[in-house]
Fold this sequence. Notes:
The chain is mostly beta strands. It has one helix at about 1-15, and strands spanning about 25-30, 35-45, 55-60, 65-75, 90-100, 105-115, 120, 130, 135-140, 150-160.
Amino acid sequence: MRRNFTAVLIAALVFAPDARAQDVRVHVDSGRRGITLAVANITIAPATLYAHHAAESYHLIPWPGSGWMRGYEVDLLDSTGAVLPRAMLHHVGMANADRRQIAYPMAERIFAAAHETKPVQLPGRFGLPMAANQRMVLYYALVNPDSTAVTGVTLRVRMRWSP
């Protein structure tokens, strides 16, 4: 699992370093102390079951500012902005391509979520330090047990932030 993730992350960074960065909208809301990442216009193919999810998608993002990430929440939205069933989310995560984990020589994972993951809020003054312009890789895989494709989907990640 670790080797597979590392190999795919390296391939995404080496072969297409900026190819998909424009697909992710990054919104910094200083008043509400939040950063929202949104990948829009996703199509989830029909008959993609949980055990056989679609291939992961990768998006390289230059991080917008220095500060502390203190929590996160992940949602899938349909084309009208309504929340889709959580069962359609196989997994989503973010890794810092500019910093390695302490115990392993692979990119530091910032967060991970799946259909069962509830919003995460770190206690008190805890947080993960992040610096402006670090290269973050947002990755995800989605599922759709229906017989028709779901179009116009947006993956939204809201992060609690302290500058």
